[in-house]
Specification:
316 residues, mainly alpha
Length: 316
Amino acid sequence: MSATTAPVPSLRSERWRLRVRGWRDFVRHFGRRRDGVLGVVILVVFGILAIAPQLFVGALETATTASGGRLDGPELAHLLGTDELGRDILNLTVHGTRISMIIGLLATLITVLIGAVIGIVAGYLGGWIDTILMRLTDFFLVLPTFVLAIALVPIVRELVGDEAVLFGIRVKLYVIVVVIGVTSWASTARIIRSQTLSVKERAFVDRARAIGSDGAHIMRRHLLPNVLNLIVANAVLVFAGAILTETFLSFIGLGDPFQPSWGQILNAAQTTGAPGLGAWWYFLPPGTSIVLVVLAFTLVGGALDDVLNPRLRGRR
């Protein structure tokens, strides 16, 4: 009579179970951070506005479709007043959410990608490769990002032109994205390299070398997953910095007036002389939006750093 054996769960189902449990633990620990939850709520609100601004304020108003008078104050028809062309400030601010968030997201992806690749490669390979990559990183660290961005934006625009359109967004804005990305990756590379130096000394990396795994496989399958938490936490803070950089570049006139971001609205308010005219409704809404989004990313970044770092969580 043959003995019956209990079914053995497959390796794939076991991995899925562990992954689900890991997400549950993450949500539970993150939920205990009220500041992080508040940051997520703020970002969700702005994310919804960025995805579908037309649902809340209609189509973007232009000089030909302006619905109000010149610099009208807040009233029932225009809750946040109008600009010098009669355009509704609420309409401009909500539509500016999409441009600012898209630029911040794309610039963050470029920054994190470059920084993570250079950090992992330098930390794992070491030697002269590490020396060259870190000297390059130090070069970008000592250069002021704003100054370098101001110098690069006009040059790149001359090469690609201003009128080209890609995915509904003028290339002028993609230039800002690329410039922010290639000037902001150095600190990310330094952080990832430090973590990589620690992870590569662990036993599972030695075992991977012993069975003949090459460097590319080890960096992709063993190092990257173990620094991913740090990459995510750092990306949140990089996002906030990218929005601030975009705001600064647009404020000094390097944005696109036909696709207004928060920084471009502030630039128009300054050019019009809104502060001197007492038109606070012109610059306060975009300024408040910038402060709220940067604050939200800072809160979420701090909470993620706490939740994803067991050492920090253990001290509480």
